[in-house]
Amino acid sequence: MGGDLEHGTRGLIAAADEAVSAAALCKKFGDRLALDDVALSVRKGELFSLLGPSGCGKTTLLRIIAGFEQPDSGEVRIDGRSMSGVPARLRPTNMVFQQIALFPHLNVFDNIAFGLRLKGRSSAEVRRRVGEMLDLVRLPGDELRRPEQLSGGQRQRVALARAMINRPSVLLLDEPLSALDLKLRIQMQAELRRLHRETGATFVFVTHDQGEAFAISDRIAVMDKGRLVQVGSPAELYERPNSRFVARFIGHTNLLEGPVVQRAADHCVVECGGVRLIVSTGSASQGVDGSLAVALRFERISLRPGGGPLPERNACSGNVIDVAYLGAVVRTTIRTAGGLELTADIPAASARMVALGEQISLAWSDEDYVVLQH
Fold it and tell me: Where are the domains of the chain?
């Protein structure tokens, strides 16, 4: 599937514009298939995220790009050059790990300078470039402090500076913000975007947090069970998920499925729990068999005012079975007489009277559905 997803994209991107490409990557650990025929293309200068639940293969893929793991089959190329047989230390990459592994006996300056000194750079060059990195990560004047004297965010900035000082073609980041508290994590997301913008480097970022991936990424690859299931911009993934898995994993959605009871040239009518849904499907409606699955985002459903009769389709009424106040919205779940449960995020100003047990009506547009392929 990974090869199918990326085939069209790879045809449009010239090899010269690719920072990282992978073809037919497979990797097993014992009986567990960690990567299953993964194909990938990351553009130069892109902030690209690998997103998925724990155990989906995203860290394994990152480690194969870095050279810390070897695939059972397939190939990785960086800047057009095959990495087959190239050890991690000789690849044009550097990696920032989940656990911030600063040298505790070295101060900030010496931690950042470590890679340059390994390469035998002159003292003058080391001073100049470490100074540049301290300015970049907004830590000027902190060069003599030890890691234990820094906050979590400051330690993470030092780790980023140390990884970037050798100017790798690709910076690999394995959930580097997961150990930080929520407020600091949000601040560091903004810092990563700034660093990416100011350096123009290629970042490949691993996370299980879809909000984090959306906040920082140019494009995202969603992974599940060792496969790439969809690749696209945050907007593309949110507005046009291609499967039940992606629809559930990206944002909050109602998944509705039922038999097709009527077809037309550009839409079909689906019966779901006693509610009739008009689904715009274009010419694809002619290929629909006995049933259809769609996603309907929480925020696309509106509270229907008044107590008059409902439209035949794309509206329903029921009793409120759950209410959660989330600040800007009230997340409201109703159950219809036919047993269908729908959740809607209603603006707080419109939902002041919503209460458990109350009967309310909900409505939406047929354009708000996304037809799911599988």
Answer: 2-245, 252-371
Please report where in the chains the tokens 């409201």 appear, as a residue: 332
Nearest to 340 by CA among 262, 246, 271: 271
Nearest to 322 by CA among 352, 349, 296, 358: 358
Determine which helix (DSSP H) or strand (DSSP E) holds 187, and give its type and residue range. helix 182-199
Q: Measured between alpha carbons, how far is residue 100 from residues 95, 125, 219 in Å?
A: 11, 26, 25
Select 252-371's CATH number: 1.25.40.620, 2.40.240.50, 2.40.50.100, 3.40.50.2000.
2.40.50.100
Q: How far apart are the first and last CA of the chain?
A: 13
The domain at 2-245 falls in which architecture? 3-Layer(aba) Sandwich (3.40)
Give residue 5's Cα distance to chain centre.
16
- For the chain, 374 residues long, the average pLDDT of each consecutive 10-residue run is 47 69 96 95 96 95 96 96 94 88 92 91 94 91 92 89 91 89 88 91 95 95 96 94 92 91 85 87 56 91 72 85 91 92 89 81 88 81
Residue 75, helix vs strand vs coil: strand
Q: 3-state DSSP call for residue 374?
A: coil
Tell me if residue 319 falls in helix, strand or coil. strand
Helix axes 182-199, 123-136, angle to 10 degrees: 120
Task: Give the span between the Cα atoms of 87 and 83, in whole angstroms.
Answer: 8
Q: Read off the pTM.
A: 0.86
Torsion of CA 251, 256, 260, 264, to 10 degrees: -40
CA distances from 10 to 13, 121, 148, 183, 264 (A): 5, 38, 45, 38, 36
